[in-house]
Amino acid sequence: MHAAVSILNPICCRIATLSENASFAAFVGAFGGFILVVLTDWRRRRARALKTLPARVASVGLLASEAHNVLQQVLAAPPGGATTQTSYLRLPLVGLQELAAEVDDHLTDRQRVNVQSVYFLTDTLNRKVAEVEALERTHAPASAILDEVRMARDTARILVETCQKYPKTPWLRRLGIDRGAG
Asked: How far apart are CA 5 and CA 181, in angstroms?
């Protein structure tokens, strides 16, 4: 026991001497601040991965469901009816891929693949809607317009299914957004 105390005594004296040094104290304070910033940043990215990204995917799924319903109504309408006016069916892409890239280290492989699929399908649906609008502007045959509307509807259906398969977190389950696998 006496040997352990004799070894620790010089170490404690050194630490006490260093703590009186202003440069060392400044270094310890700066290092502590750095660690605090790193931990806060990690916590913020983790919260975005667990709350913001799943909520964004769920909102895209709801918008895609609405688009699917509208496109289904367009297909059910009698031929030669009014134009589809699909411009409001475009889904927002802004920020989805950037948010996923920002929180990438907090996502599972399944979540990464799912977010990329949601982004790709949303972009595809927006292009299909733009093609329908272009065909309507050029007064294309109704059969060509309806073919594009069918493809857009099918894309919207697949997008809804993909959004529902996004792995859910306990936070979303508490809100009742727990459709699909997870």
From this structure: 59
Residue pair 71/89 in contact by the 8 Å Cβ criterion: yes
For the entire predicted model, the pTM comes to 0.66
Summarize pLDDT for 141-180 with one digit per residue, the tens. Answer: 888 888 988 999 999 999 999 888 877 655 445 555 544 4
Separation in Å, CA 168 to CA 52, 69, 110, 181: 12, 24, 11, 7
Whether 27 is covered by a domain: the verdict is no
Give the amino acid at 23.
S
Q: Which of 27, 91, 29, 55 is nearest to 176 (CA)?
A: 55
Tell me the C-alpha distance between 97 and 52, whole Å.
13
Are the CB atoms for 156 and 71 separated by under 8 Å? yes
Helix 53-76 / helix 109-137 crossing angle, nearest 10 deg: 30
**Domain containing residue 134:** 48-175
Say if CB 98 and CB 67 are below 8 A apart.
no
